[in-house]
Amino acid sequence: VLYKWEVNTKTARGLETRQGILAVAVNIASVDGLSGLTLGRLAAELEMSKSGLFAHFGSKEELQLATIEHATQLYAEQVIIPGLAHPRGMATLYGLCHEYVTLMEREVFPGGCFFASAMADFDARPGPVRDRIAQGQRLWLDLLERAGSDAIEGGEISPSADPAQLAFELEAAMLSANWYHHLYSDPEFFRMARRAVQAALSSKVTAKGRRVLGAALVGQPA
Amino acid sequence: VLYKWEVNTKTARGLETRQGILAVAVNIASVDGLSGLTLGRLAAELEMSKSGLFAHFGSKEELQLATIEHATQLYAEQVIIPGLAHPRGMATLYGLCHEYVTLMEREVFPGGCFFASAMADFDARPGPVRDRIAQGQRLWLDLLERAGSDAIEGGEISPSADPAQLAFELEAAMLSANWYHHLYSDPEFFRMARRAVQAALSSKVTAKGRRVLGAALVGQPA
Q1: Which residues of B touch A (CB under 8 A)?
Q2: Do B183 and A121 touch (CB under 8 A)?
Q3: For the whole model, what pTM was predicted?
Q4: For A108-112, B62-66, B67-71, which range has the lowest pLDDT when averaged over its residues?
Q5: Handedness of CA A196, A199, A201, A203 (dihedral sign)
Q6: In this predicted model, which residue has the larger pLDDT, A207 or A54?
Q7: Contact check, Cβ <8 Å, A183/B110
Q8: N or C: which end of chain A has fewer CB within 10 A?
């Protein structure tokens, strides 16, 4: 499975509190990095006791892992599910990119893409947290790659295209727009990411793929 | 000027020590981020007293700024100068990208590209350090853009190409390769960055530009 909804045996009230705590934790981590997300920092932000937080999360690492799960659900709801709602192939591939850029444009996270921050923060810190981040990024790249393979199979992208390379190029434009937008507070970087995505797809489409891409782009920012 | 060599009134011996200290500081910052680079952390790494370090750098911020200058010199020597040694236009544009990817492949910094780490670390921390990082990244993007403009002027790239967009696409592939390589320790991401650079340039070349790019690619990893 691509992601899993949280299985929780706590009461509905406890679950609600936990989700509210994790929403704040995701925001802190997007700004300060996951390594800056300690029980003390989160307790201060929530004006809660550290022991109250301990009832939910037994350790810093458990908190970090739960925060990643929470962010994963958010990306699943806001990027993956709407992206996969499109027909297989080119429409899904473009849809996934469009939804991800839209999420960044909406500035849902105060510190930019949660997973970009998490990758940057844990790239040199081996352990379960880094493993979970690496697994999540692999799933995202694989999702883009599979949509590209479907587009080739469906005759929308030239069979000479390499879907893994295409996935990397799409992700590269979007991930870098995240970093440059945050450095300069300039939404032009998101427009450049959109143009890069459109250019990468356009350079590999068949006539059939061009019609699908053209239909997807109607009314989209250029 | 693109960068400036350090002007230092200290004795030659003091200068040498200072450069040695900053070389260690650059490495720490590439792994832990510039914000993790404190006088205490650096003193421990160097087995030096904090007061000894204070003689060189009066504050954490001064140390961070000096570390950025040191890293800038390193990029100037290893990427910018060799890149600009090529003929203007396409050869320089490709040369800059090639040298940057090569620097990353050589793993000169234990935590990956110093400036990628610095951008990620300071994107949400306003102040002189972030300003200096933003200025450095702007110079890098401008350098790529100017080489692209020169290539258009020299008839190597189609006049319909947007050199700022091209600069972004080249940088995006390289910056993202840095992050993914560090997450997975997989040099395939550098090869994907090289292919992305070649594809972005190839899609916009004229017949003249194709010959220049072809000559630059002889003997290069594909």
Answers
A1: 31-33, 110-112, 116-117, 119-121, 123-124, 130, 133-134, 137-138, 164-165, 168-169, 171-173, 175-177, 179-180, 182-184, 189, 192-193, 195-196, 199, 203
A2: no
A3: 0.91
A4: A108-112
A5: negative
A6: A207
A7: no
A8: N
